[in-house]
Amino acid sequence: MIDFWLAAGLLLLTALSFLLIPVLRGRRAQREEDRTALNVALYQERLAELHVQQQEGVLTAAQLETGRAEAARELLADTEGVQLPRESRLGKPLPLLAALLVPVLGVALYLHYGASDKVELTRELSRPPVSMEDMTHRLERAAAAQPDSAEGLYFLGRAYMAQGRSADAARVFERTVALAGRRPELLGQWAQAQYFADNKQWSPRIQALTDEALKLDPKEVTSLGLLGIAAFEGQRYQAAIDYWNRLLAQLPAEDNSRAALQGGIDRAAQKLKENGGVVAQQSVMTVRVDLSAEVKANVLPSDSVFIFVRAVKGPPAPLAVKRVTVAELPITVELGDADAMMPSLKLSNFPEVQLVARISRAGIPTAGQWIGRSQPLASSTTALQPLTIDSPDP
């Protein structure tokens, strides 16, 4: 902050110069005015002396006129270049008063309307935190300084969750949703914080949040993980396995949390068997998608490719879907229960299905330019299925 106040001081000095320079010029003009008055007084005194000498008979009338003319020339020489003083309507006290008030008012107005706290906060955030508490304190200050920043509130909520302050996190995520809109990832975070704030008691409110999040994005990871936890705590082990399998399918292969998640799935399966249940087998179909020669000549590498499986006899909505680009073809993907768009629309729930791949330049899964379809297949099929995109999309 030192360099900031130095710069502010220089600006104030510049402003003061515009007020003080006229005052200094006025003093110079006053000195010139005083010198002129002195010269006039000396001139008048010289004339008086000449008249006295003329009356005493020392000077003749001609010598008197010569002396008077000489005194006049000296007066003119002394006052040459002196400007007449300009009268100021403001007077001298007002500029001096303004010079005193400018820095005082400037500092007062900046402290009231300025952003010195934000400047200091920015400097503080640029330094690495020394602890989690330090980071949380900084985020709290940032949220107070910028209450309309959804991003700042989001990170504050995550910090609260890391510290186990789930009730505070739930309130912050609720504010974040109010600012940023009902985005699925924010709804999932809010539901998770509320669940732990309520001592792991499931409620209609939490169910509504997770339902809304998964309706907007069936692959929203926080909601899938939370539903799996709630199902496990409620001894609904098969449901926990299903939710966690769907979550596992979304995680990258190198994600460190995959091992912990698989451990949870294994524990749920063990609990299910201990209670006399049977773990439902997950249906998985493997498909290799490629392009015909004609299609290759008419597509762009950036075009979207939607690969999905749908029931031959059932709802038109896809049972599972994955999205790639033309540049990634040919590609082999797996579609199974873990990719289900909805829990009730799992691949294993339908005996006969069809594989479909569609190219959509606009990125719309329901309409495109080219399409490929397989023959009807049993949902229990495990062999690799080739699928070629070779027909115009009607």
Describe this structure in words.
There is one protein chain. With 394 residues, this protein is of the alpha+beta class. The chain folds into 3 domains: 2-113; 130-234, Serine Threonine Protein Phosphatase 5, Tetratricopeptide repeat; 284-392, Immunoglobulin-like (Sandwich). Helix content is 56%, strand content 13%. The chain has 13 helices and 9 strands. The strands form 2 sheets. Strands 2, 3, 5, 6, 7 and 9 form a 6-stranded antiparallel sheet that branches. Strands 4-1-8 form a 3-stranded mixed sheet. Strand 2 and strand 3 form a beta hairpin. Helix 1 (2-55) runs antiparallel to helix 2 and helix 5 packs antiparallel against helix 6. The longest helix is centred in the N-terminal third of the chain and has 54 residues, at 2-55. Mean pLDDT is 80; it is low at 82-90.
Instruction: Tell me the total number of β-strands.
Output: 9
- Could you give a short account of the major beta sheet? 6 strands, antiparallel
The domain count comes to: 3
Rg, rounded, reads 44 Å
Class of secondary structure makeup: alpha+beta
Q: What coarse outline follows from CA principal-axis ratios?
A: elongated
**Assembly state of the chains shown:** single chain
Mean pLDDT: 80
Low-confidence stretches: 82-90
Helix content: 55-70%
SSE pattern? HHHHHHHHHHHHEHEEEEEEEE
Give the termini distance in whole angstroms: 66 Å
Percentage of β-strand residues: 5-15%
Q: How many helices?
A: 13
Subcellular location: Cell envelope
Keywords: Cytochrome c-type biogenesis, Membrane, Repeat, TPR repeat, Transmembrane, Transmembrane helix
Protein name: Cytochrome C
Domain Cytochrome c-type biogenesis protein H Ig-like: 286-390
